[in-house]
Each structure stands twice: as C-alpha cells, then as structure tokens.
Amino acid sequence: MINPSPMREMPALIPPELPIVETFHSVQGEGAWTGTNAFFIRLGGCDVGCWFCDTKHSWNPKRHPTMAIADLTAAAKAVNPAIVVITGGEPLMHDLAPLTESLHAQGLRVHLETSGAHPLSGTFDWVTLSPKPFKPPHESVYPEADELKVVIATADDFEWAEEQSRQVPSTTLRYLQAEWSSQTTPLIFDYVLQHPEWRISLQTHKLLNVQ
Predict the structure, then answer these.
(1) pLDDT digits (tens, 9 = 90+) for 193-207
(2) Could you identify which of 96, 129, 138, 175 might form a hypothetical disulfide with 201, taking C-beta atoms 3.0 to 4.6 angstroms apart as the criterion?
(3) Residue numbers annotated as active site
C-alpha cells in the first residue's frame, strides 16, 4: 500500500495592509462635520498633482510604512471617535472595501475625503468629494457625494465649481474653500452672497493651530 503524501503546510494568511502616512486623533477641521471628534487615517499615494497640496509628502506610497487593517481598526476603536476619516493622498488609489468593512464591524462611522480621481471602493457613511481639474473625478463617485468641497485659488475656479456642482445630487452640500495661500476668502464671501446654494468652508484646524 502506498502511503499518502504528507499534506503541504499552507502559508499563513497575511492580513491586508495599506501604506500609512499618519494616523491621529483630532477634530474635523473642514466642511459639514467641522468640530467633530475624529480619528484620521491618512493613506500614502496620490497621482492628482495639485500644486497647492499641503501633504505632498504623501504622494509616493512607497515612502510610507504599511499597517495591517486590523491594527488600523484597533487604533481607531481605542480613541472612541464620533467619525473615522479616511483621507490622503488620494485614498481611492487603494481598494478600501476591506478597511471600511473592518471599521464598520466595530460600529464606527466611516467618512471618506477624496478627489474622486479613481473608482469608488468601500462603503461609507459620508463622502466628501473635493474634485480637482488636474485629474477630474471618476463617474462612479459623483452620485455618492454627500458633500462637494471645491478649492478656490483664483476667480476662474468658480466656473469649475459650478461644472462639478451640476454632476452631484441636488441634496449634496456644496462648499467653497479658499486655497490657504491665495487669499481668495473675500471672493468666496461675495460669491456665496450671490449664490445661496453654496457655503463657505474654513480650515478651522489651521486657525486653531491643531493637526
């Protein structure tokens, strides 16, 4: 009788990992959820290339260590935030389904901040779409936008804002936010007074000098 061959040992399953620029516990500084207790997960990787980006160090994902989704979830759960914000970089460069599934399994509310430059992945309780003309949003993102946040660096950007506004649902909250170094807040103030469907978004975390 021929002895059966011994079973091959199966390799251990490696938990999904993502490149992480940083995680931190603070308050949401912008848009509809300003002032809300939030845990931020900033993912590495972005191919949009905004000249005014304040996190250019996040663009190359290979420069940042990876972190297991289980560990990210545990870190978020430990601080008991009102919301977990997945941001970047451009987070939709990654498949976000495993991360959002893990966070939701722990009863956490999950928000996304994205330029929309890649197809939507994952399940979210709130989606902030901040489209950039350098790489316009993928069509899958527009219908899911709860909040549209357009950065205004010059007066010409209002036309881009209106073009983007026509592509999101009527229920989407619409925000105009001044590019930090461009001093366009007075222009936005006057524009909102003439266009009541828009609101002003301020970067309150910078005004408060917190992360």
Answers:
(1) 999 999 999 877 767
(2) 175
(3) 40, 46, 50, 53-55, 113, 205
